[in-house]
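Page 47, continued from p. 46.
Same chain as before, 264 aa.
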Amino acid sequence: MTPAVEPPQGIPPATTEDAFLGGRLRILQPARGYRAGLDAVLLASSVEPANGNVLDCGAGVGTAGLCVAARCSECRITLVEREPTLLDLARQNIALNGFEGRVAGVSGDLLLPASHPGAPALAAESFDCVLANPPYHDDDAGTRARDKLKDVSHAMGSGSLTDWLRFAARMTKPAGRVTLINKAEALPCLLEAMKDRFGALSVTPVHSYAASPAIRVIVAGTKGSRAPLTLRPPVVLHEAGGAFTPYVGRILREGAPLVLQPED
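Result:
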């Protein structure tokens, strides 16, 4: 992933084009407000090539789902996003990277009931793998972002993690896999929301440095499984000098996988 650059000719001035996966993927995204980054790449790295149909929930400009498309040539990906501006950029990103045949952008608010006309027009239990990077903040706590797109991307609104997991469970095939990345302090809420929906849970803590507390958790589960929870080895982002660790560097530059399935 590279720093934001000045938009080339033909791209709206409020948009930048950024490189991901060592330049294999180009992403148009808003120059201000919410911008995709490390979380999206880590989330995408959890998908194994065997997973055929992948759903990226609340996809934004499509970074996580498009990283999956770049890594896994046999996967078919659906990006669902409710914000028209972000969805339009996601569809531009599909075309920019030549993924029109395997990736589609779908409009819809996943927090709405399935029967609501504003809900995503997707068939239940049609995805082998569902990814989600839900908003991190409760909109009743703290200071709301001034930028509208950043606000809706970081605040829960009227929804909750339970609502996100309910939608994910509805979309996932039996024995399909759901994976989320969120702030570390959300782990109790994530586990509670996944209870009775998913088993074989795996929890991977993500640390900025080896000696620092976890800042993120990657939580995955299998629909309908009764297998116990597995605590995976931590992912450490940075070495003492600030450079990415070799393992994370391979994920960011080469699209290396982050294996989350519990060991047999």
